[in-house]
């Protein structure tokens, strides 16, 4: 059963607010937001159709790196009342005017425990004029995909 998919969510959204706004110069900001996995997830659990994880942290970020990178933990709350705790590592890259944060890891607790995780968040690079301003960019949004599969 190697590679068997437990959940695939191809249509999702990510959104974040920054206080203070992010600029070209890295600075510590309070970032708050959520990743919504939905559109109709395809799952081995017939009661699962969508999920959401919320984040609230203080991190050094910039317009060049508006996403968290490195190791972390998050919890996806599924529409069926179940949860999955993920232990992941995020890597940020830029590609053709987009910023992509790719998270890989495992489900450590809850539904699908022991499964592998691949989540990809994509946003357009922040507006250069706003990044150069003192206020900076105060919000961003983009798309997400999620796959949880057998290890």
Outline of this structure?
By secondary structure, the protein is mostly beta strands.
Task: Tell me the number of helical segments per DSSP (H or I, 4 or more residues long).
Answer: 1
| Low-confidence runs | none
Q: Order of strands in the sheet with the most strands?
A: 1-2-4-5-6-7-8-9
Largest sheet: 8 strands, antiparallel, barrel
Task: Let me know the number of strands.
Answer: 9
> N-to-C SSE series?
EEEEEEEEHE
Which descriptor suits the 3D outline? Answer: elongated
Radius of gyration: 16 Å
Portion of residues within helices = under 10%
Q: What's the structural domain tally?
A: 1
Mean pLDDT: 93
Strand content: over 45%
- First CA to last CA: what distance? 9 Å
Q: Structural class given helices, strands, pairing? A: mainly beta
Q: How is the topology of this model organized?
A:
Elements: E1 5-22, E2 27-38, E3 42-43, E4 51-61, E5 70-78, E6 83-95, E7 98-110, E8 116-124, H1 128-132, E9 137-149
Antiparallel strand pairs: 1-2, 1-3, 1-9, 2-4, 4-5, 5-6, 6-7, 7-8, 8-9
Descriptive notes:
The chain is mainly beta and 151 residues long. The protein has one domain (5-149). The chain is built from one helix and nine strands; from the N terminus they run E-E-E-E-E-E-E-E-H-E. The chain has one helix at residues 128-132, and strands spanning 5-22, 27-38, 42-43, 51-61, 70-78, 83-95, 98-110, 116-124, 137-149. An eight-stranded antiparallel barrel has the order 1-2-4-5-6-7-8-9. Strand 7 and strand 8 (116-124) form a beta hairpin. 30% of the residues are buried. The mean pLDDT is 93.
């Amino acid at each position: 059963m190697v590679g068997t998919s437990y959940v695939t969510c191809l249509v999702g959204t990510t959104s974040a607010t920054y206080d203070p706004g992010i600029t070209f110069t890295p600075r510590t900001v309070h970032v708050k937001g959520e990743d919504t996995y939905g559109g109709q997830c395809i799952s081995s659990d017939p009661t699962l159709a969508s999920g959401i994880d919320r984040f609230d942290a203080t991190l050094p970020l910039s317009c060049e790196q508006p996403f968290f990178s490195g190791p972390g933990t998050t919890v996806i709350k599924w529409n069926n009342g179940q949860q999955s705790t993920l232990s992941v590592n995020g890597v940020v890259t830029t590609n053709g005017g987009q910023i992509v944060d790719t998270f890989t890891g495992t489900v450590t607790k809850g539904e699908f425990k022991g499964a592998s995780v691949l989540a990809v968040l994509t946003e357009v690079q922040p507006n250069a004029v706003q990044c150069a301003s003192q206020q900076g960019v105060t919000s961003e949004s983009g798309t997400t995909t999620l796959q949880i599969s057998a290890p």
